Amino acid sequence: MANIQRIQVLVVMIISLRIQIALLQAETIASYVHPNISTLKSIVRITNRLGDDSTLNLHCKSPDDNLGLKILAPNKSWSFTFRPNIWGTTVFYCHFTWPRGHSTHFYIYDDIRDDGVRKGNPCIDCTWHIDQNRPCRFNQKTNLFDLCYDWNK
């Protein structure tokens, strides 16, 4: 009876070791496919910097998620988190409106533009200031909001 128990314990240990090895191999393979393969969450933070005491209405969505309408008072922020997909095609689009008929849109996260792993300017924490002229992202290299883009057409 003691021999059977020893054999059972040995089998369980071998199975456990094989599972651990398989998980380590899967992690290694995944990191070769894409460096931030669904392990790192990104955060997008949007701040109303319109000036002139205007509220900012925004409605953000991706092909998979509709984040709904948000209304930001002057100098207030809103944020959301997500995991970029392994294919490098994650996008979040926002429609912005503010008083006096202003309406525009912008891809607030575009994996091709914002993937810092490939481009050397990480957007794990994507912090944006939205003003009346254009959206500007915080640049971790310069500590300024100097990554500015035109509104999407």
Question: If you had to describe this structure to a student in words, what would you say it looks like?
Answer:
By secondary structure, this protein is α+β, with helices and mostly antiparallel strands. The chain folds into 2 domains: 1-33; 37-148, Immunoglobulins (Immunoglobulin-like), CATH 2.60.40. Helix content is 26%, strand content 39%. It contains 3 helices and 9 strands. The strands form 2 sheets. It has a 5-stranded mixed beta sheet, with no helix packed on it.
List the helices and strands and how they pair.
Blueprint: H1 2-33, E1 42-48, E2 56-61, E3 66-72, E4 77-82, E5 91-98, E6 102-110, H2 111-114, H3 116-119, E7 125-130, E8 135-139, E9 144-148
Parallel strand pairs: 1-7
Antiparallel strand pairs: 1-4, 2-3, 2-5, 5-6, 7-8, 8-9
SS-derived structural category: alpha+beta
**Count of distinct structural domains:** 2
Q: Based on CA inertia axes, which overall geometry fits?
A: elongated
Second-tier CATH architecture of the largest domain: Sandwich
Can you summarize the main beta sheet?
5 strands, mixed
CATH class of the largest domain: Mainly Beta
Number of helices: 3
Strand order of the largest sheet: 4-1-7-8-9
Primary descriptors:
153 residues, 3 helices, 5-stranded mixed beta sheet, alpha+beta, Immunoglobulin-like
Structure described in brief:
This protein has 153 residues and is an alpha+beta fold.
